[in-house]
Amino acid sequence: MKPLIALTALFSLTTASQSPLRDNQAPLPKPPIPLKGHLPLMSSNPPSVQPSVALGDILGSNRGLTSFSSFARMQPSTDTRLSDLSTNTTVLAPLNSAVDALPRKPWEQPGDYNNFGADAYEGDGGQDRARENMKRFVEAHLVPVSPWEKGEKSKTLGGKEVWWEVKEGRRVIMPDEVEVERVASQVGNGELVS
Q1: Model pTM above 0.85
Q2: How confident is the chain (194 residues) per 10-residue block, as mean pLDDT?
Q3: Do the beta carbons of residue 194 and residue 65 sit within 8 Å?
């Protein structure tokens, strides 16, 4: 009985897909073809590709990335980039736990304390310094390429040259050898890697 039901369902789907579109219908987009050498999905549950969704729409939906998501949204230039479906980006989003483990807040720089003292981030000038530091932090995690192929060297928006390799079955971002946990999402304008 089960094979008959499966055959009937398959036949129904096949016949329906061959019927002409109505005036108000559009064909479904074809899923993208995986590129050889593209950042591999080594997870047992690869993310679904959402071609009409932007990185800016999904970045905050991952609970483990909320800190970085809020930092990226505070920067008009990066928020605009991540929302633009015509501008591809690979986001190397640090987990909340990684942000929490930093020796200082992302908007703090030791040089600022050396130059301006304990009140380095007070007043308008201090807030401007903090915003600029935060912008540099976010831009250091945005690669203006997607798909990003293995071994392809690219500069982050912050200016650092990076590439990725597979070492002992792990994906690592070079030259700092930061391990990639997974490709969290693939959307219309790039990938979210954590």
Answers
A1: no
A2: 33 37 41 39 56 90 93 94 96 95 94 93 95 96 95 97 94 94 91 92
A3: yes
